[in-house]
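Q: How would the structure tokens look for this protein?
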Amino acid sequence: MKIYTRTGDKGETSLFAGGRVAKNHPRVEAYGTLDEANSVIGVALSFLPEGLGELKESLLWLQKRLFDLGAELATAKQEALARLKYLVGEGDVSKLEEDIDRLEVQLVPLENFILPGGHPAAAFLHLARTVVRRGERSVMEIPNLRTQVLAFLNRSSDFLFVAARYVNAKAGLGEPSWD
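A: Here is the predicted structure in token form.
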């Protein structure tokens, strides 16, 4: 199978389970933004220091769930959602909360806003967080969105923020604060 199909050369793309839309359609914008976030997480993983295997596993899990969510966002027909392998749900939100709590107990409590940066992996996790936030805003344009989608994206960005802080802490780097 070739990577190119030429079917999108005029600015349209196919949705899962049928239908074509413009490449700037809200669904395409939303799942494209989550694909971007997923890529940034991949870059962060490539810089992740040794010894953070548990965080690596959590980030890989998040990448898979973002792909799952992208598939859902690419599915305009409600009846076709049942054909998808996985839909993010309350269990995924709970897992993110557990991961946040596990990492946060090892961090100094925040007293100020912090500036993104520090270790390269942390800086990319902060970037991924902002891309997920943009994705969260873009999915608001999609009608009939399941409430779990917004909760999952909100918690994902929270997790990425804490993960960035955790990487900086484990690397022995301070966090510049915004005064």
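The mean pLDDT is 93.

The domain at 12-16+24-178 is CATH 1.20.1200.10 (Hypothetical Protein Ta1238; Chain: A;).

Upvote if useful.
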